[in-house]
Amino acid sequence: MKRTILTAALLSVMSGAMAAPAPVEEIGGGATGSSQDRIAKLERILKAKQQNEFDMQRRLDQLQNEVLELRGLAEQQQYQMDQMLQRQRQLYDDIAKLSTQPAASIPSPTTPVDTPTSSLGETASYEAAVNLVLKERKYEEAIPAFSQFIAQYPQSSYAPNANYWLGQLLYNKGSLDEAKAAFVIVVDKYPQSSKRGDSLVKLGMIAEKQNDKAGASALYNSVLKEYPNSASARLAKQQLSSL
């Protein structure tokens, strides 16, 4: 009995569905309006996507600049600490020498004593150039300041850092060929520099901007091979994924 009632109900539903008229799409103005709405919606989606990509790139550039400034502060503090330790060691050496000299050989206050001034000039020049970027944010003035430091102190232990700073400033300015020359100096002349991996990444980014994707890929892969666990490698991997 229950099966008979269920069967009848199913037949009733099926017959009702077959009898219902099929929906009819409007032809003419309504269809055209619907297409235009869909096109407008797609355009809005595309525009929103482009805006998101633009915002993301802007945030990435901002983060890179902040990282650059933080690294500069760390370098400056490390440099000042090294200088302080060097002065302390020199002071201990002077005290040790004085304690072993006879009293007659100790120079009087009026006797001129030769003291190295080149390191003080080197320190002041480098810190002045860095401060133009970090404290005063005078990026245009920092470019000739770093160039002058490199020319005046080519053998400085901070010459690779100065070249990297110079390359970064020129890159931000859009002077890609000049920036490339500065980064190449770091890569070729200072193989032990902590800035070499970062310089390779920057050279890859310059190659990208110059539509040399093959060259960019080779540079990024070099970073992954030579500096696999570094921040430079993470950035190179990110750039590779976007090629």
From TrEMBL:
Residues 1-19 form the signal peptide. Pfam families: TolA_bind_tri, TPR_16, TPR_6. Residues 46-80 form a coiled coil. Residues 35-105 form the YbgF trimerisation domain. GO terms for cellular component: outer membrane-bounded periplasmic space. Keywords: Cell cycle, Cell division, Coiled coil, Periplasm, Signal. Its main location: periplasm. InterPro entries: CpoB, CpoB_C, TPR-like_helical_dom_sf, TPR_rpt, YbgF_tri. HAMAP family: CpoB. Mediates coordination of peptidoglycan synthesis and outer membrane constriction during cell division. Belongs to the CpoB family. This is Cell division coordinator CpoB. The gene is ybgF.
